[in-house]
Design a protein that fits this description.
This protein has helices spanning 11-22, 45-55, 82-91, 116-125, 145-150, and strands at residues 2-5, 29-31, 38-42, 64-66, 96-101, 107-111, 129-133, 158-161, 173-176, 183-186. The longest helix has 12 residues, at 11-22. It contains five helices and ten strands, in the order βαββαβαββαβαβββ. It folds into two domains: 1-68 and 113-165, DHBP synthase (Alpha-Beta Complex); 75-106 and 169-197, no CATH class. α1 crosses α4 (116-125).
């Protein structure tokens, strides 16, 4: 497994290395975010299966997406309802996952990360990426690359060291926007009051 250190390489070099790996179906990367360490893969069945295996996660729990431009989500079957648009305009980029309705009648949780490396990676890939926290399902979030790599059931293909995160770091806030008003499923790093909507 290759480790790219953001302190010893440029963002462009790190993006090039990770994007090159993720273009191989089934490849998974461990990456820093502005919240906790996460896992990403391209939007293919092989990538999602690898992530589920690494996390020992139930396939019934859908993976979220990192997106660089939420306005393009309609190209992937996501419905940009007025509520979804209001939330995205107000809170992205940032530590919020917005669950939007999709054409299948389910929902897609998307997040526009506010992290220079991830923003550049998404621009390079030009598509959303599957994403989830880099820890075994049900275990505490990983606040360092060492924690992330130590608590997975297997090895990722490439990882990015962005340093240790603060001990009080929280995962993203999760907002269900499939109804008329937002429903907070998890209050995380971003505080949102549904009464504001």
């Amino acid at each position: 497994m290759k480790i790219v250190d953001l302190y010893n390489s440029t963002v462009a070099d790190a993006v090039s290395a990770v994007a090159g790996v993720l273009r191989t179906p089934g490849s998974v990367a461990a990456v820093p975010t502005e919240t906790v360490y996460g896992l990403v893969s391209a939007l293919n069945a092989e990538g999602s299966e690898r992530i589920y295996a690494l996390k020992r996660r139930s396939g019934a729990k859908r993976l979220g997406w990192f997106v660089g431009n939420w306005r393009r989500l309609a190209e992937y079957g996501v419905e940009l309802t007025p509520l979804v648009v209001r939330l995205a305009l107000r809170y992205t980029p940032g530590p919020v996952t917005i669950i939007a309705p999709d054409v299948s009648g389910n929902g897609i949780g998307f997040r526009v990360p506010d992290h220079p490396f991830l923003a550049a990676l998404l621009a390079e890939m030009e598509t959303p990426l599957y994403q989830t926290s880099a820890n075994l399902s049900g275990e505490p979030d990983a606040l360092s690359l060492d924690d992330a790599l130590a608590h997975l059931d297997g090895q990722v293909d490439i990882s990015v060291n962005g340093g240790d995160l603060p001990p009080a770091a929280l995962a993203s806030t999760v907002v269900d926007a499939r109804g008329e008003v937002p429903k907070i499923l998890r209050q995380g790093a971003l505080k949102i009051d549904p009464a504001d909507f």
